[in-house]
Amino acid sequence: MNEVLDRLRGRLVVSCQAYPGEPLRDPDSMRRMALAALHGGAAGIRAQGLDDLRLIRESVDVPIIGLWKDGAEGVYITPTADHAAAVAGTGADVVAFDATDRPRPDGRPIEDTIAAIHDAGRLAMADVSTWDEGVRAAELGVDAVGTTLSGYTGAGPKPTGPDLDLVEGLVAAVSVPVIAEGRIHTPRQAAEAMGRGAHAVVVGTAITHPTTITSWFADAVNG
């Protein structure tokens, strides 16, 4: 399975996800979005939801980072070991899960989620919000650490840009690949993340979320 991470080294992963109630919240729409991203040069896909993941897996032969969002508050990215096992069953190569220090819905430790992923023969990616969480996840045996949740778990307004300092700090502290993710909205930011030592860069909203992209332009035009 290390070949999966080797295939992503120095490359772009595109996150294909739509929010509940949106026109593109449909497995085939996300499958088509994934194919479009691959045509543009993406080396891997990140996607959520069992139906989406199964359909995308049938259509692509690149590495897939899979997750299951269940809920909208607290820990909801692949929140339990059972969720992780289900994601692994879709054929996703890597299972991403919330590895923050917040309470988990089933009360079980992160170690159980990592074990469920490894027992299924998949790689475990810890989505973290802080340096401490990333270091701990690496110590517990995850295969990669993502900066996905930086800026999303604390009080106060969400930052506008990516947490590249966290990327650099984790690269210096852990021996597993660090994947930069979260609010990377421009090619320049993606390149800077690589310059900070990221193993790969995940971009979602700026590529695959038309509603948000449209709002950026509408706000600029409307003044």
What does this structure look like?
Pathway: Amino-sugar metabolism; N-acetylneuraminate degradation; D-fructose 6-phosphate from N-acetylneuraminate: step 3/5. InterPro entries: Aldolase_TIM, NanE, RibuloseP-bd_barrel. Its EC number is 5.1.3.9. The N and C termini lie far apart (49 Å). It is built from ten helices and eight strands. The chain has a single domain (2-218), classed as Aldolase class I (TIM Barrel, Alpha-Beta Barrel). Helix 2 packs across helix 3 and helix 4 runs parallel beside helix 5 (110-119). The chain has an eight-stranded parallel beta barrel, surrounded by eight helices. The model has no long low-confidence stretch (mean pLDDT 97). Helix 3 (50-59) links the parallel strand 2 (44-48) and strand 3. With 223 residues, the protein is an alpha/beta fold.
Regions with little confidence, pLDDT below 50 for 5+ residues? none
What is the fourth-level CATH superfamily? Aldolase class I
- Give a short account of the largest sheet: 8 strands, parallel, barrel
Q: What is the total number of structural domains?
A: 1
Instruction: Give the second-level CATH assignment, the architecture.
Output: Alpha-Beta Barrel
Number of strands: 8
Secondary-structure element order, N to C: HEHEHEHEHEHEHEHEHH
Could you give the order of strands across the largest sheet? Answer: 1-2-3-4-5-6-7-8
Using the alpha-carbon principal axes, give the shape. globular
The structural class is: alpha/beta
> What proportion of the residues form beta strands (DSSP E)?
15-25%
Query: Which CATH top level class fits?
Result: Alpha Beta
- Round the mean pLDDT to the nearest integer and report it: 97
Number of helices: 10
End-to-end Cα distance, whole Å, is 49 Å
* Oligomeric state: single chain
Provide the gyration radius in Å. 16 Å
Estimate the helix proportion, in percent.
Answer: 40-55%
Look up the CATH topology: TIM Barrel
